[in-house]
Amino acid sequence: MPPRRAHNLHLLPTVLANVAAHVTFLDSLKMKRIAKDNTFYRLTIDVDYEIMVHSLLRFESARRSRIMTATALKHYLLASDFDQTLSFKDSGLVLSELLGISGFEERVAGLARCNLVQQGGELAYLIRHDPEFRGVRREHLVEVGRRIRLKGAIPALVDFMKRGIEGYLFSFFVISAAPREIVISALEGVLAPEHIYGTELEFDDRSGEVRAIKRVPAGYGKVAVIEELAHRLRVASDRVIYVGDGSSDIHVMLHVNNHDGFTIAVSENKQLARIAKSTVLSDNAFSIMVPILDQLLRWRTGSIRDLFESYGLTLNEWERDRTDRVQISELLAIHERAQAEAV
User: Fold this and answer.
1) How many angstroms separate the Cα of 328 from the Cα of each of 86, 151, 317, 319?
2) Confidence (pTM)
3) Can you give the pLDDT at residue 319?
């Protein structure tokens, strides 16, 4: 019998579990006799060494296949702001309306002029230090989230990110300076809380009021979250995509651009438009896929339209420029309107 060669013996413990399903040991009666004889037996396996080697090679082949598949996929991190990026109104305004507090925008402008807090972190400062906002409780923030009007097709966008496309994997996160409770409440049932980063507040157990601010993802705070996510997900810096709408997104967009990532502005903010690599103006959240597919992944127009239609959406208007003005409608709504006109 030829000498047996060592075939990846370091994988032996893992393979044994698979081999056990194909192997027949001596039956229980024989085992009892062995115990009585007190004799050392070298158990003979019905399907011996060849199955062992075959299983090892099959296991190794599957392992290499998984590694090659993971390597072949291009993994992108897509991070989005929340206020006026995925929604139509600033959450601070909605909170002010809920509490009956006036002058929110003036207070924010005053904080911006004195550079007391990073842009985007004004609401967190007001909640902690403004006497009128000291009455904010956790339940108020949850209610604000329920009242916020979201842009269209966010569920479709999240679903697309989960599914990915051939050759590409996406990880989608929301990074907002708004209190995390607001964003979680607004996106309940759409995006898992672990994919949401927002201002973290510490509440007093007795009074329920905010007693401390633990983290504010505003300004450079968003840069820190992006770096943290990219490191944890092992995403290359040139495969980071950031979507934002205002001045609080400038630092993170500059950071992403400096590392050859891709940035998208979703407003006509002139300062932001000069920094972002693309600008999309639409009331539909799925519209951000237009520059991603067109400019980044180099899809053809027809393929982009087909993807939108697969989610029940249609590109009614698409003015291609550095700023993409996109009008999207749900296909069902179009059919219903056509039927009404026919009648």
Assistant:
1) 15, 11, 7, 12
2) 0.74
3) 66
